[in-house]
Amino acid sequence: MLSKQKLFALGFQHVMAMYAGAIAVPLIVGGALHLTPAQMAYLVAADLFTCGIATLLQIMGTRFFGSRLPVILGCTFTAVGPIIAIASTSNLATAYGAIILSGIFVVLAAPLYGKLLRFFPTVVTGSVVTIIGLSLIPVAMNNVAGGQGSADFGQPRNLLLALVTLLVILLVNRVAKGFLRSISVLIGLFAGTVVAYAMGMVHFAAVADASWVSVAQPFYFGKPEFSIMAVCTMIIVNIVSMVESTGVYLAVGKAIDQKVEQKQIVNGLRSEGLAIMLGGIFNAFPYTAFSQNVGLISLTRVKSRNVIFAAGGIMVVLGLLPKLAALTTVIPNAVLGGAMIVMFGSVAASGMSILSEVDLRKESNLLIAACSIAVGLGSAVLPQMFDQLPSFAKMLLQNGIVSGSIMAIVLNIVLTRKQRESAQGVNVSEVPQKV
């Protein structure tokens, strides 16, 4: 049984692992829509608050809601473009109306989606989990260099910070035991930030400017408005998120050595639908299972749901206390990148471990794994290749996890069917004929 202090430290480590991704979406959307500083501050606080509530809903679980898996929910990047597009052509109230209705769609569609899980045998699962890890590597490397678009992108000091963070994490994992080993990522982030402070790369201006208290309020940007096209767009976004979340659930199951049942995935998706509705009500964002935290579970070997429960509680508090939330933003991107290398690499390694259970000497299995991983990684590294396609196809295929999953599922259906037909043909020919 973990003490309260250990639970807090392990939960805070999970928050740090997903924090950059959690606040990136409100910052991007707010910047694109030219929101005021007060509105931006609300957007970040509301997002963190709702992230926490969504995670708690996922962890606690009831008869119909919550997977009861150690999964953290965060805002999906897939929704960034559509929200900006909807709000730019109409207003934010229309975007949030679409988010609310799309959340209802996810709740209602989850059982039907669950019936499709028979198309996820081990070879597909292993390929999808591998794709999740590999598609996140470019994110890690961008952070290692200082963050995409930063003025000092690729500067040697950023690379040095990432290396220091990575080495500290590896050293703690190699030398320490027990609890210290389980918070190796947190120790690495702290050490990297201390070094960055000594180099003059840590600034506390944002902390000083942040308010002490902020309470998320329903319909901050006005009462929701509804547009059929906007609703359809957000439904497509959430269908993409459902596929992505399925891969995350399966990856978490592998990390905690637990077989994930269909009912868990359906209940988890229902919970995500409820979280999406809350995101619309509190004027935050659509939510999905965060793959960033899967690698942390694999690395620390801490499988307790109580840790994720603690992480959810910490996010709720950060959402209510913006000054504390701002304190966590002082960690440089390069430091986060050094930690991401270990975490995201661990996810990819978990996928490879699943594939090791598959007989890759069978040509069908080899083709499924090879093609799906190649397509998924290619989409993640070069998403602009789909820029000339219609918006629906573009949204679907630019997500490496989704495009790779679709490829794996389709190849599994086609190749296994051909294999069965071939086997039946052989059996018929081998039946002795009467003369």
TrEMBL record:
Annotated localization: Cell membrane
Keywords attached to this entry: Cell membrane, Membrane, Transmembrane, Transmembrane helix, Transport
Coarse class of the protein's main subcellular location: membrane
Statement: the UniProt record of this protein carries the keyword Metal-binding: no
Cross-referenced Pfam families: Xan_ur_permease (PF00860)
Residue stretches spanning the membrane: 7-33, 39-57, 69-87, 93-112, 119-139, 159-176, 183-206, 226-252, 307-328, 334-354, 366-386, 392-415
Superkingdom of the organism of origin: Bacteria
Entry membrane topology: Multi-pass membrane protein
Record-stated family: Belongs to the nucleobase:cation symporter-2 (NCS2) (TC 2.A.40) family.
Name listed for the protein in its UniProt record: Purine permease
